[in-house]
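Note to self: the last two entries modelled the partners one at a time, which told us nothing about the interface. This time every component goes in together.
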Amino acid sequence: MSRQVLGKAIIAVLALIVLVVGGKELYDHRHYPEPVVLGPGVTRVESLSDYHAPLKGTTNDAKVYVLEGQEEGGGVLVLGGTHPGEVAGILAAIVMVENAVPIKGDLYIIPHISRSGSTGTQPTGAFPLYYEIETEFGSRKFRMGDRVTNPLDQWPDPDVFIHYPEGQSLSYVEIRNINRCWPGRPDGTLTEQTTYAAMQLVREKGINVVIDLHEAELLYPVTNCIVAPTKSATIAALAQINLGMDFDIHTEPSPSGYRGLSHREVGDYSDAYPFLFEAPEPFLDQPTGPKTQELLLEGVDEFLLAAGRKGLLFVEYDETGKPIELRVGRHLHTLLGVLSEWNWSSACPPGREIELECPDYYDLIENGVGAFLRDPDAVGPDQVVFD
Ligand SMILES: [Zn+2]
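The predicted structure of the combined assembly is written out below.
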């Protein structure tokens, strides 16, 4: 063997080692079984494919946790993980699955509506692969996800994404963004089939209220808010007035000309009243230090503090940061506030009220998120679902 061939062989072997070692971490992350403990309110667990069979066997066949009330009432669909990097939405949904008990009406909770997005992090953004929440029994570990459907599940992207059915042109990458693909279509892309399945759930179960949980940058005006279309606006505004005594919150109108978003299409293509909540997540901002788990969960960043001193942020921000218990707590509290207004609203048909017991903002601030996560090892295997 000539020295030249030997040199090439060594380089090829080294490249293979890098590929296998680096690839294994990403493979393990994509297949990490994230445990969810079934709380006292859960009456059954469904899958999105129960509402659209072609999703069966795909990465997006997300779990649907059903919590049926003791009394008949209305229906609520809670969506976490539309954008899997917005972790407070996922954790709020999981805290609900593990703790909420409906008194009147039924809850349908999907913590990972973009399961595919939750299986791909952003290595080029140096995102962590996982994050862990401390509890009394140790820590609970979660996948850190990306904003859009994993390209391993849907690829390639077109040059321009044409929204279905409205025909609006959007940027190419939005074809993998759940929140540009509502109301979906049965024979569309994986992302469109996912929103179609959720719409089928809304229609088949006569869901009254749909709540989509998000987080946003502090440098972006649409945060600390409820986004609502005209049909949901009165309920959102009244909830805002009451919630304003607990924390800073405002309402944003859903623009009627911007298509594909849950707060627009869910209301236009079903009888349900949609609401989208945004909490402030410093990790998402661009001028920050390293994208660490600490930044994700504590939300303290010196560059954002400097931006705040210059008046560049859209929320109040100081050395206490935006810790995860505050963000999860405000999502739960806002959800309870909106449902309370729903019950009083003229939009609520008789008998379609919704009442539930669920940890609120003050419970989370006082005890932290970990206090509301259950120990998967302390319950029987039939009480744990891997999501
Ligand atoms: Zn989002």
